Structures are given as structure tokens and as C-alpha cells.
Amino acid sequence: MIGRGQTGNAKLVKHINREGILHQLKENPRVSRADLAKLTELSRPCVSALVDEMIVEGLISEVGFGESKGGRKPILLEYNFQAYGVIGAVFEGSTLQLAIANLKGELLVQRTTCLRHPMNGETAIQSIEQGLAALLDESGFDKARLLGMGLGLPGITQRSEGTVSYAPSTGWMGLPVRKEIEAALGLPVVIENDVNLMTLGEFHKGIGVGHSNLVYMYAGTGIGAGIMIDGQLYRGAKEASGEIGYMVIGPVGNQTKGEYGVFERNYSVRAIREKAKAALPLMDESESIVKQIVDQAKSGGKAAQTLLDDICRHWTYGIANLTSVMDPALLILSGEMLHIGDEGVHKIQQWLTDWVPSVPRIEMASLGDQAGLIGAIHCALEAFPSTSKLQR
């Protein structure tokens, strides 16, 4: 008689074997059943049975014949990256980015939506619903083929509980965000901090490729960082790693729990814009404030140059704190920091040389506003493997 535990173990083993076969097909396209048996160290009958099952499901395709080694030509197999799709979504400032990607992580269709302010949970969820409906309509992709969504949110995200804390820009403090979005979409969702997703994007597809230890620093509506240690995203004991906006850099003032941190209250885009009102005679609200400061400094504006030096110096305080603790091989600058140019990077390197014992290589982020989306897609592919669709 087979016990309940044994039945569960058999299902688990089958799931692991299926994932092992799919992994090998991703890494080794166009191989035979016999090749898969050697690569996975599974028996040929086991491989054949699981392969035939996944061919019926559409996960694997037969794509021709290989060379004969004395007998019949072997049938070659290929992972069908188009079988299913995942959704990537990222809230950043006043925009929502959405994309649908195939199982290879290739973006098939995407859109950016400007959000109404002030934004609340209800309007945010509605914007996701409407954006996904528009993507499905534009692409003709069948919603039934979607595995799930990776969603980037500002603030400290609790992945397991599906909640967000310390997110003053959205007001989603402690609310069951994931549960509500899953109910609205009818799809599983995994949530992650927005800067962590940007970090994953650069790590997998951008300037961070080949670096197992790096720090990604972002300055925008808030200030945050993503940390990769030995090729893994470090989240911390309470998933609050990288919340460097709470570093005590600049005047502390009256700090209230749940508000923006001291660093971002003083040197985020919102704060810099307030500082710039006195330094810049004319400001264009539609253009990057840091770019405007840099342009006026280059044109000889002394007040703009003084402000720019102050901004770069205080951003470097944050970088020095990160560097002295993490000792990364690579530091990636992103967000508004992209506008400081080579001269700004050179200043940061000089200050760091004076302040810390080991200075990392410093590079600008290479993926632009695609970093978060690519990270969200990667997050979804990791959380919802293609075989999960058939287990629901």
C-alpha cells in the first residue's frame, strides 16, 4: 500500500525531473532523448515518458533529425519558448511600465502609462488591469497562456506576505497588495522592490553581466540600492536591504515613522527640485532637474555649479557608506545620477579614493528604463516555472 507521503514524494520527484529536462533543453537546444538521459542522469524510459508528456502540453517540440551513429537518426528536441508568457510590471514615480515576455525573457510587447496623482491602491490596481488588457489586445496573446506577473513597487516589500511597508509615495503601508492584484487579474503575482528589480535587470542583461558582487544605486523620486552577493540578490532579514534613503545624510529635521528617509528627504529628485528653485532662474518641469543643473553649471552658472557639487558630494557619502560595508567589485549608478556625466563620476571616484580603502569600478546603468521591466520578467520566470501552469 502506498502511503500519502509516498504519493506526494512521487509527484515532487516527477516535477523535479520535468524541470531538469526543461533546464537542459534551455542550455542545450536541439538534443535527442538519449542526450537528455545523459545530461539529466535519468533513465531513457523516464526521459521518453516525460518528454512525450511535455510535447503534448506544448512545452517541447520535435524539430528534425540529428546525425546517425549507426542506427536510426535521433529525433531532436527543442524547448518551446513561445508556449507561455509572463508579465513584468514596475511602478516608478508617476508611471507604470508593463510588458509581456516569452519564456526566454524576450519582451514581446510593452507600454508605459502615466498615472494620476495622488495615486492610491485602487487606482494603481485599475491601471494594471487596464494596461494588461491593452497589451493582450495589442499582441493577441492568450491570457490563458500567462504564467504570472512580476511586479516592482517602491518601498519595503514582503514577498511572502505580499505586502508593502514604508512606501510613502503610494500609501500602500501594510496592505495586502499582492492578494488584491491577484484577485483583480486572476493570475499569480510576485512582488519585489522596484530598485531590486532594476538591479536584477542590469545583472542579467546589462552592465552587471559577469559580476557576481555588485551594488546598484538609484536616485529618483526616492533613493535606493540593490545588492548582489555571490550572484544572489541580498534582501536582508526583513527584506529591507538596500533602503539607503534612510541613511542619515543631510539635515535630520523632524523625522516621522513612515515618511521618506533623511537621505531622500534631502537629495532625492523632489528635494533637489526644491533646492534648485533658488539656484536656477528658469526650470522646465518636464525635463530632468539634474540635467538642467548640469547644463547651467557647464554654461558658467556659479549657483548651479555650487548646487551640483553639493548634490554629488552627498550622493558620494551614500556611496562611501555602501562601499565600506559591501566592498563590491562594481558600483552601478542609475536614475538621475546618469546625468552627472564623466566629470561627475570622476569627482565621485576622487572623493571615494580619499574616504574609503577600496574603490570599486563605477559604471552608468546601461538598460535605461528597461532595467526594472527586465528584472520583473526574470523574477516572474523564476517564481512561475512553465510546469507550474499545469499544476494549478
Fold and architecture overview:
One of its GO terms (biological process) is D-xylose metabolic process. Pfam families: HTH_24, ROK. This is Transcriptional regulator. It comes from Paenibacillus elgii. This protein has 392 residues and is of the alpha/beta class. The protein is 42% helix and 20% strand. It has 3 domains: 4-79, Arc Repressor Mutant, subunit A (Orthogonal Bundle); 85-197 and 372-391, Nucleotidyltransferase, domain 5, CATH 3.30.420; 210-366, ATPase, nucleotide binding domain (Nucleotidyltransferase, domain 5). The protein has helices at residues 4-27, 33-40, 44-57, 121-139, 177-185, 194-205, 262-267, 269-279, 289-298, 302-326, 341-355, 371-383, and strands spanning 60-65, 75-79, 85-92, 95-102, 107-114, 146-153, 156-158, 163-165, 189-193, 214-219, 223-229, 232-233, 330-335, 361-364. A 5-stranded mixed sheet has the order 5-4-3-6-9, sandwiched between helices. A 5-stranded mixed sheet has the order 12-11-10-13-14, with helices on both faces. Strand 13 (330-335), helix 11 and strand 14 form a beta-alpha-beta unit. The radius of gyration is 24 Å and the shape is elongated.
Summarize the SSE layout with pairings.
Elements: H1 4-27, H2 33-40, H3 44-57, E1 60-65, E2 75-79, E3 85-92, E4 95-102, E5 107-114, H4 121-139, E6 146-153, E7 156-158, E8 163-165, H5 177-185, E9 189-193, H6 194-205, E10 214-219, E11 223-229, E12 232-233, H7 262-267, H8 269-279, H9 289-298, H10 302-326, E13 330-335, H11 341-355, E14 361-364, H12 371-383
